[in-house]
Design brief:
The structure holds 2 protein chains of 2 kinds. Chain A is of the alpha+beta class. Chain A is built from 11 helices and 10 strands. The relative contact order of chain A is 0.11. By secondary structure, chain B is an alpha+beta fold. In chain B, strand 6 and strand 7 form a beta hairpin. In chain B, helix 10 runs antiparallel to helix 11. Chains A and B meet through helix 7, strand 10, helix 8, helix 9 and helix 11 of A and helix 9, helix 10 and helix 13 of B.
Chain lengths: ~350, ~400
């Protein structure tokens, strides 16, 4: 491997910093714990008025070219937004529509894709992607699809579902309208991110691109890396929550954060969270390059490591809080569940590590 | 203002690299010129190896020297002087001492060591017992120091002593420069679990130190020592390994030789490789943020992370070797190597043993976690039971 050619650049632009502040401020107003709990109890799991605000701020189409109504930025900026959203457990079909479906459409482009990208950017429609080939069994006959797709993020609320199907000896990307399929909500562990099982029974399908080789791999890589950035935001948040509790909570006449048993655990979390940030920031930057090898290496590192770190941090956060951390009333379980679900959404860490091990020749 | 500092550093750097091409200049000559150019410690005053600018420019300077084919190995080879002694001198020492000592320190003509730890004062450095008693303008020093890197080749030592046992421990210490060639200084190699002696014990038996070698006021040794320790992190510098290099390389080699097709071991190995790379990326990120004048917690976690990981990965590598992991082919013959620490490229079994020290040397992992917890995260400190009682009444042992 010519590792010396790999570009590693953690520069943060002023634009990215402004974006971070914008999102953080908006989330501060909108995504309070009470609001998260309200939305997670609904079937749709999000608020359409908030979705319109996200569209207005341009946050639905950051990496989409300007001529299609996007911001013409990159996935690096998407990562910044994801990190802030992860801190506050935003309930919105952003990962499915603005990341997964958008990545698939940007991979194929063409008239149909571009029109849909414009609609997604404007918030007029929401799309998702059946991103798990291991849970998708769909046949395409040239005009309709039949079969099932599992673990589709926001599959109940998406207006249009994208599928990668076998076609003419290759892969085609097709779109099915929500009205033409049956969506059954899945009983998800993480209530803040909805998933569905979809059934297609001769559903009319529009061909978005007939030559869409690699679309699922690309979209899943983008989705997983953006989710890794969301996860470091969540991990940072639970660490800060634990630290605050360590200062406030007194037992045996002392703040519990003065005990090394807790202090040392939080220091370990800090160590892992900082390393996870580095992995996530580097990986998301590779998405904006043409370096396929480095994208593979960096995404395997980020996805497997950040997933593991978030779960550990969120679990430790429950422990650091003692009894109150195990109650429904406390937010610790919301992060813990988001962490576990995020770790598994794009395949287990073991799967990602196996791909990396193959690449490294282990 | 920042813009003009940028220009000054760039100009000085440009002139240094043009007048003394690092690739063709003997290291010591280059370092001398670097000192004279004010690029040794850029934050120091002019004439003392600096330009009086923000220390973040040092990373820019170091990278440029390395890129031009030069060496910054003096920072490693004389780390206790350049990294820790220099800030003490420039903050607390007399003009004469600064003029006399800084330049030969930077060029490595005079090596420095640090005489802090004692058999009875490890993590609790402020509990140290080596005594210094004044007699007619001369201090008589008695005691024992330990884990003294480079003492056997050092010209100067940074020494902390107990000058008043009747006050609380932090108040009764005094800091000195010790001439390592003085009578009564006895340096003995300290053999460690590898059979090597990278460190020394230093016995001080009625050693006489002139009062002009006292640094700071009598009783203020602790705050002077803190100048040293707070610079420890800066001293470690920006030496970033290649991807896949370092200890994990040896585990990969063991896997390739002995691993077979065990999928569990393969996954474990990959996990280690990933964590080393995440840690390496963190060093790169910390370096970038430092250069941009925006350092954060990412610059403080490396020591702890590295120490824990080195122990774990070498342990794994030995397991992968199977029965061969029970062998130590090099043997335990007592030796005193030239280079110190984990910088050397050694065998896996040697590194396996050497790595045990990584979580002890330069601050134990427990102390590192206290520092991260209290200074970075802002958690409250442990109650101190020895804080307000005279040092002589504090239980020791």
């Amino acid at each position: 491997m010519a590792e010396t050619d790999v570009v590693i650049d953690f520069t943060q632009t002023d634009e990215q910093q402004m974006l971070r502040e914008l999102v953080s401020k908006w989330l501060g107003d909108r995504s309070e714990s009470e609001r998260v709990r309200e939305l997670m109890d609904t079937e749709d799991g999000f608020d359409t008025a908030e979705w319109a605000e996200l569209a207005e701020m341009g946050l639905l189409a950051l990496p989409v070219p300007g001529e299609l109504g996007g911001a013409g930025m990159g996935w690096t900026e998407v990562g910044v937004v994801a990190e802030e959203m992860g801190r506050r457990l935003l309930c919105a079909p952003w990962l499915s529509s603005a990341v997964l479906a958008t990545a698939a459409l940007l991979h194929v482009r063409g008239d149909v894709a571009d029109e849909l990208l414009g609609q997604l950017a404007a918030g007029e429609r929401r799309a998702t992607l059946a991103h798990r080939p291991d849970h998708t069994e769909v046949t395409f006959d040239g005009s309709t699809v039949t079969g099932t797709a599992g673990f589709v993020v926001d599959g109940v609320t998406a207006d249009v579902v994208l599928l990668a199907v076998d076609h003419d000896g290759g892969t085609a990307l097709v779109a099915v309208d929500a009205a033409d399929l049956t969506a059954t909500p899945l009983p998800v562990l993480d209530l803040t991110r909805k998933q569905a099982e979809l059934a297609f029974d001769g559903a009319p399908a529009t061909v978005v691109a007939s030559d869409a080789d690699g679309v699922l791999e690309r979209a899943a890589t983008v989705g997983a890396v953006v989710l890794a950035n969301e996860s470091v935001g969540g991990a940072q948040q639970v660490l800060e929550t634990s630290v605050q509790y360590g200062r406030d909570r007194k037992q045996f006449g002392r703040a519990i954060g003065s005990y090394q048993a807790l202090k040392h655990r939080m220091a370990d979390t800090l160590k892992h969270v900082e390393a996870a940030k580095s992995a996530a920031y580097h990986a998301v930057r590779t998405l904006d390059t043409d370096d396929a090898d480095e994208t593979l290496v960096a995404s395997a590192i980020a996805v497997s490591y950040c997933g593991q770190v978030y779960e550990q941090a969120a679990g430790d956060n429950i422990q650091n809080h003692g009894g109150i951390g195990f109650t429904w009333e406390h937010d610790a379980h919301l992060y813990f569940k988001r962490a576990k679900s995020s770790k598994l959404l794009f395949g287990s860490p073991t799967t990602w590590r196996a791909a990396l091990a193959d690449h490294l020749g282990f | 203002m920042a813009g003009s500092d940028d220009a000054r550093v760039a100009e000085a750097l440009d002139r240094l690299l043009t007048d003394h091409p690092p690739a063709d200049t003997p290291h010591q000559d280059f370092w001398g010129a670097q000192f004279d150019a004010g690029l040794a410690w850029v934050q120091f005053p002019e004439g003392r190896g600096g330009l009086g600018v923000n220390p973040r420019f040092q990373a820019v300077v170091n990278d440029a020297i390395v890129d031009a084919g030069g060496s910054i190995s003096n920072r490693r080879n004389n780390v206790l002087g350049i990294g820790m002694g220099a800030p003490v001198l420039v903050t607390h020492a007399s003009e004469e001492h600064q003029d006399r000592l800084l330049r030969p320190m930077f060029t490595c003509e005079e090596i420095w060591c640090q005489l802090f730890s004692e058999p009875g004062a490890g993590s609790d450095l402020a509990g140290l017992a080596t005594s210094a008693v004044e007699e007619d303008g001369t201090w008589i020093v008695n005691g024992q120091k330990v884990w003294t890197t480079l003492a056997h080749i050092a010209k100067w030592g940074l020494l902390v002593t107990r000058t008043d046992p009747d006050v609380p421990k932090h108040a009764g210490m005094t800091y000195f420069l010790l001439d390592m060639e003085a009578e009564g200084v006895d340096v003995r190699p300290l053999y460690q679990i590898t059979g090597e002696a990278e460190f020394n014990e230093v016995y001080l038996d009625d050693v006489r130190i002139p009062d002009e070698h006292r640094i700071g006021e009598v009783g203020e040794g602790w705050s002077v020592a803190m100048t040293t320790l707070s610079n420890e992190r800066v001293a470690i510098g920006s030496n970033i390994p290649e991807r896949g290099d370092g200890m994990v390389k040896h585990a990969v080699a063991a896997w390739q030789e002995h691993g077979g097709d065990d999928p569990v071991a393969r996954d474990t190995l990959t996990k280690f490789w990933i964590e080393y790379e995440a840690m390496r990326l963190t060093s790169i990120r910390a370096n970038a943020n430092r250069k941009a004048g925006n350092p954060g917690p990412e610059g403080s976690t490396g020591k702890l992370h590295w120490a824990d990981l080195n122990k774990a990965v070498t342990e794994f590598g030995m397991d992968v070797k199977g029965a061969a992991g029970m062998l130590y082919p090099k043997g335990y013959e007592f030796t005193a190597p030239e280079a110190s620490g984990t910088a050397r490229d050694e065998s896996l079994e040697q590194l396996y043993l050497r790595a045990r020290a990584n979580s002890i040397e330069g601050g134990t992992s427990e102390i590192m976690k206290n520092i991260l917890g209290e200074r970075v995260l802002g958690l409250p400190g442990e109650p101190r039971v020895d804080k307000n009682i005279p040092w002589k009444d504090v239980p020791r042992g």
